[in-house]
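Can you give me the bound-state structure? Components:
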Amino acid sequence: MHPQETLLSGTEAASGPPAPAVRPRTSSNGVPLSGAEGQDGPEGGQPMDAETFAGLSGRIMAVMNTVIDGKEEAVRLALTVLLAGGHLLLEDVPGVGKTLLAKSLARTVDCTVNRIQFTPDLLPSDITGVSIFNQSSRAFEFRPGAIFANIVIGDEINRASAKTQSALLESMAEHQVSVDGTTYHLQEPFMVIATQNPIEMEGTYPLPEAQRDRFMARISLGYPDTEAELAMLETHQSANPLDAVEAVATTADVAAMVATVAAVHVAPAVRAYTVALGQATRTSPELRLGASPRALLQLLRAAKAAAALAGRAFVLPDDIRTLAVPVLAHRLLVERGAASAGATPASVIGELLATVAVPGPPDGRAVKGARNT
Amino acid sequence: MSGGRSLTRALGEPSTGPARWVLAVAVFGAVMGASLSLGGVLANSGWFPRASIVVAVTLFIPALLRRRPGLGPFAPLGALAGWLLGLTLMFFPGTAILGFIPTTRTVRAALDLSAEASAVVMGSVAPAPTVLPMIFLAAAGLGFAALLIDTVAVTVAMPAAGALGIVLIMLPAALMTDKGIGTAGFVGAAAGYLLLLGCCRWYAPEGRLRNGGNAAPSGTLARGAALGAAVVLLMAIVPAAVPGFTQGSFPQGSRLNGSNGPTRLDPMIALGSDLRTQSSRINLTYLSNTNTAQYLRLSTLEDFTGKSWQPTPLPGGLSSSLDALKPAADANAAVPRTETITQVTARSLDSEWLPAPLSPTQVRDVNGRWLWNPSTQTILGQGASTEGQEYTVRSEMPVLTPALLEAATLPPRATLNPVFSTLPNDVPQLVRTTAQEVAGKAATPYKKAMALQEYLRSDAFSYSLDTPAAEGYDGSGMQVLAEFLKVKSGYCVHFSAAMAVMARELGIPSRIAVGYAPGAANLEVVQRDGVTLFGYQAAGRDAHAWPELYFEGLGWVPFEPTPSRGSVPAYAQEESDSGTDPGNIPLPNRTTAPETATSAAPTTTGAADDGAAAPPTGGEWLLRAGLGLLVLLLLGAPALVRSAGRRRRLALVRRGTGAVAGAAPDPGRVPGVLAWRELLATAIDYGYIAEPSLTPALHAERIAAMLGTGAPPGLALVRGAYEEAVYSNAAAGTGRDDLADAVETVHARLRTRATPWQRLRATLVPASFFTR
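Here's the bound-state model for the whole set.
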């Protein structure tokens, strides 16, 4: 539910010429938030018809798949997160293509891309921007940081200090940056793709739980299979396939796709299923921390995007099931005892999915299957 | 949710609080409610207190065990222990340690008591006397039913299937009594069943339906009600509809006549029951213008071709007017005749056959619709009963003399129904040789018949009700007959059958008449229309069977081969007694000389000694057939309900919900949902286990795996329609033939891929029917 505004609306000229694509607004400014369109629809985006949507999303995934071999699921998930208006956390050992995935997604969409290499000495202002005193105009002037882009790639986010991380996380949640009392809106679509090395690697600052909660989904890429790895060695030998990537969608396209996703129907039964699943994570004795309401909201949003990508105008419980692990796993904490017994968040979610009944028609009569066993 | 916990839950453990007690009370209520039906089986309610204590103890122990969830699965063992304990406590405290711990003596005493009980059951018609063995039987049966219901409804958590136990309780009443289950029994059983369903729904389902699982009390109730209704309906319909059930060996079958008439037993059965109890209850009285008592016939057995003797089915086109009866043209018109008037008052006799003397010519004042069968000279009611009837029969018999019979040497007329002379191929050699030896050089049919009767009445044979059963040849088959001729001991059925079969062996057509041997005079004398009528009465112990042989020119002639029973007709008495004077006509009729009457009188009083008839075997047969039928009905009920449900669903799928434009259709009844439910239920019938946590797509995937390669596309079609109906905002209520077809295709596919055993199970015990 991020307030969205048109690119130019609410621009405040108080602090000099704003950087391109930056939409600052003083905090005292009461400019109305974005319109009646709905919470998710970026303004300007009109829902497109299913065919256009399918064509466009198919092209985006096809192009990304030429860059990253054998990772169709990760690619689809990345696009799902983009269309659901969330942020993506890529977690894996170095060298499996995390950055490549982030970059290829950014390249396929014709939009501004910034990349931040997180290091221990990175400062929050490097991300958000800084106000500099302009001698000639004798006024403070805002220099936007690296966050001001449609897609921000945060490489090795866990190498930065907690302070810097939180600066990024705040802007992720709010879609805005506050510097010296002035609030600057980020452009839409806005998506952070952060990559992270597994926590037990040396020289890292683990992301706090609250911050992990701000990522809609986490993907582990994993090693490619033999075939894909051979193909990769072949294609990456001569040239970087990224160079060959051409944008297949504009920001307007993406906005329209996001609007399409927002129009996907969610039946009461699916909402009930989501809530039942969330409650199961909270009552499970194997989990110390269950899924937050925000987590469930994001799960449902992601499910809508997944449904749209599957060519459906409504969400199925299957969408929830497929996304449960990527969307929920990184937010859950396993009890120590269960962890030592080998339970992982993903395994616990798997168990819960096997117990939570899938609701049927909302007439209270038959739970599909449940009564018929 | 650990595996252990969900297992316990899956076993329907009510775990905490008052639930287990409430459930125990519910089962108790169901059992005792259904037990009200026993009111008609046992003479009074003396059994009730002890039986209820046994049932209570049987249920108490499992309820106690369920306090600890881990012990839940062992509740049936607890119930068994409670059952034994309760029975010991109530019936054999003297043989038990501390009055309730059974010992071997207890077991022996229990076996003795059950043997006595079975003797009482076999030896009485309902209502049985409420003696200790019967109380024991009732208590044991009810306790066992309680055990069964408790196990099925609570331990296995299938309360709807508890109906099995309840039906078990109602069985005796349905099978044995005149009044059937009775209103009280039925209402009690239904109330108890609903109580059981309700309580199980209320207290036990928590563990069964997990998060998000919607409760469906209406479904459970409907299912239970459907099961009950189906059973009752089948019990009412099937016996009436199945050919051969109302004819054949058991003309009355075990048909439930509902409210308009009691279930009446086949005359042979009634005869046997009455004989074995040596009942002195007066079944009927009659006034007759003869001064000797009469043989009153109910029905005949003439078909010997099968395993047992059976009546022939009723021919068509029978007259229902009894005003003028025309016997088949059996008797030569030249033979002098004598007319007998018999005015019968059927008191406690409740039979579908109208008692009448042989060869009636007119029946008057009888209520209801009765059919005259000229071939057997019997009168069969169509939904009518003799109970309380008072009617007059005129009958006409040739005045038979030995000389006349001696002269009847012509072979039987060709038009005589061959059923009267046909013998099965497996007539034992002993029977054949005996017949030939006995007949010896006898030249005429009459001589042969007399030789047979003489042989059977000779000292070599003894009359006994018990020997056949003890020697293991009780029954009505041909082998039994051979055994009877070897052991030479039996009762009227054996004697009459032996004579009838051997007569056929010698070329004389024969049949067995079933009815009442001449009873005793009751000293009543009535003058009516200028005719003096003498009163007689026939009690239950007078039930009898005797052979009738056919003599060309004279018709059917009764004989009396059973020693010490009935009265030997004058024409059939041995020559040393009366045969010397062929001119003397000692036939019982009003012209009979007084001396004949005195000669017949002593024999009538001996009637009480004749005993049992065929029926121990017939009774068992009937019971077995009834039980078998009931089992069949019970087996069939789920299949019937299930297939009716399938048809209804598919019809709705094809027709659609017919929702008015603008109004949203009921989301639970749109074609997509119904089709999917039916498909899933079908798959479940064929062994699919529908985990509630699976989505439609996953179900479809697994069902497709069941269907093998190349699963019909209908599966995806139905799944898609269901998903659209439930999860999209565009559920349509319009009829979908394609969905119904797809479901049928999948069904057919499942059927062809299933093993015969699976097919049978899917049809008879559809798993989707037995749901929680």
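A couple of observations. The first strand of chain B starts at residue 282 and ends at 288. The two ends of chain B are 21 Å apart (CA to CA).
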